[in-house]
């Protein structure tokens, strides 16, 4: 959502760059622009997500979209950012946003659950493999966050059991954990 990105960038003094995270060249362009305008990236948070409902009947194009956004964004970022980080000293932290659905399951949402399980596995692999380069990797697995994907609601459904988290709370927890 380019308009929302520009609004938030204006609020926080950041920049907005149009990027389809499911497209590798867009991700490469994002990294190039960010480094050119703001300097070397020391923290990257992969936070895009795409819901998907259904089971075995979900068509291939929906699987492709879901895996592209929920998994491949992290592959593309690492492919283009980790080589830069391997040559640098200092802080290097990659945060993969998965979901509680990556640890358990999301009933009624096979592509989402599978993509989030894969994101958790990918984060673990990156953490083990690239630790020797000083690259720290964290994997965020919140249950439900009040976003466009999960509007706030009171009660009902599995997510309603423990409540829906405010995005500001999740962001603060990530900053404190780093």
UniProtKB/TrEMBL annotation:
Q: Any keyword Cytoplasm?
A: no
Q: What one GO molecular function would you report for this record?
A: oxidoreductase activity
InterPro entries membership: NAD(P)-bd_dom_sf, Sc_DH/Rdtase_CS, SDR_fam
Q: Which family does it belong to?
A: Belongs to the short-chain dehydrogenases/reductases (SDR) family.
State the superkingdom.
Eukaryota
Concerning PANTHER family, the annotation shows: 3-OXOACYL-(ACYL-CARRIER-PROTEIN) REDUCTASE (AFU_ORTHOLOGUE AFUA_6G11210), SHORT CHAIN DEHYDROGENASE MDPC-RELATED
Q: Which organism is it from?
A: Alexandrium catenella
According to UniProt, the name of this protein is Uncharacterized protein
Q: Which Gene3D superfamilies match?
A: NAD(P)-binding Rossmann-like Domain
Tell me which Pfam families the record gives.
adh_short (PF00106)
Oxidoreductase is among the record's keywords: yes
Keyword field: Oxidoreductase
């Amino acid at each position: 959502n380019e308009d929302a990105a520009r609004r938030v960038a204006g609020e926080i003094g950041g920049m907005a760059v149009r990027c389809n995270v499911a497209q590798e060249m867009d991700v490469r362009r994002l990294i190039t622009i960010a480094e050119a305008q703001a300097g070397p990236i020391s923290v990257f948070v992969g936070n895009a997500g795409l819901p998907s409902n259904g089971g075995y009947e979900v068509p291939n194009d929906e699987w492709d979209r879901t895996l592209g956004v929920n998994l491949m964004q992290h592959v593309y970022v690492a492919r283009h950012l980790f080589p830069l980080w391997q040559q640098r000293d200092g802080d290097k932290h990659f945060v993969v946003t998965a979901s509680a659905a990556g640890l358990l399951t999301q009933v009624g949402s096979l592509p989402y659950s599978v993509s989030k399980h894969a994101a958790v596995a990918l984060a673990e692999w990156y953490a083990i493999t690239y630790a020797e380069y000083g690259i720290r990797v964290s994997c965020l697995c919140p249950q439900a966050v009040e976003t466009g994907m999960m509007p706030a609601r009171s009660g009902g459904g599995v997510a309603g059991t423990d409540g829906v988290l405010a995005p500001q709370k999740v962001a603060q927890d990530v900053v404190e954990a780093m």
